[in-house]
Amino acid sequence: MADVRVLNNEAVSVLAALFRLNNHEKMIDRDTLAADHLARWVIKSRVSIPAELFEMIEVFFSWDSFFGLRTLPYICFEGIDSCEAFMEWLERLSPQSLMAKFFSPQYYEDCEARDLAFRLLELDERETLKYVFSNLELGNSSRYSAIEILRDQNGAKESFSSLLHFICRELFDGEFLEILRESSRTFRELFNGNFSLYGQPFLRELLDIERREESSESDLYIFSSWFLGGSVITVNLPERNSVISIVGEETMRKKNMLPEAMDPLEIAGVLSVEGSMNLLKTLMNRRMNIRSIAKETGLHRHGLVEKLAALSRQGLAVTGVSGDEFWFETDEQLIDRALLIMREMMVGKRVADHPLQ
Q: For the chain, which domains are there?
């Protein structure tokens, strides 16, 4: 990557919050550490949102249409860093310019010709249907919403603005903002530590992206988000030679490779995770990369990386980088040291002069 920036942005938090509100049930399988807190926030927020606005969350933030999230590149590249700046930017847009952003995965400068094309769609229902059903970016489940907002573009802009305004005003109170700030601090601390030690291999595993030579020169913008939990949203913008990712704080915590103080309860928890014991057997006195471990164990790469990271944090495995690949390894001494720490907690005393102390 040519340049890597880790950013905290209130406007991005708003987008991630709205995406979570509409898709919580689809995301919870990746949430563990913050699952309870996220569930409570979702329930409280859904109850407080007026019914007419709640219906629009499904339109703008469905699982497969991403209309609202397509404002992300503009937040990134046009200096929008707060709710107020987001609302001011939106106010300056014509309804047609907003539609152009909703319906394109690319970053476009404002263009009168494109605005006119979307204005004509609003006036001609047949052209609207032709455009929607020929747009390969739209899934079948999102076509009705697309038709709805194209047929009333002024109303769509007003609804989107009202939705953002309500979230900014009602759901981001002072106490909750402090939770978000603490989440951002934790994210940045873990990111800096891992990136300084492991570099590009850590970025690839964090963002869950395949290795691509052409992406190595792209600028990378990473926004942390408490709302995404264990999920990641990544947008490739080749026209700007950039990659933008919103990464859940929980994703960072689970893929954190930095060694921690060995804790008997944490060690027991790691060993109790399904597949961890077999992983240690596979790695015993063998230095292996993630690809070879996945092939030998049959584990999916995403879950495998989280298990390997947990073993590394508690000293049950050692981790390093060779070239652009992670490697992992364990041995009898590492296992004995971990078991000794657990034994000392259970028997209530330290083993004097033990060679592993």
A: 4-250 (no CATH), 259-347 (1.10.10.10)
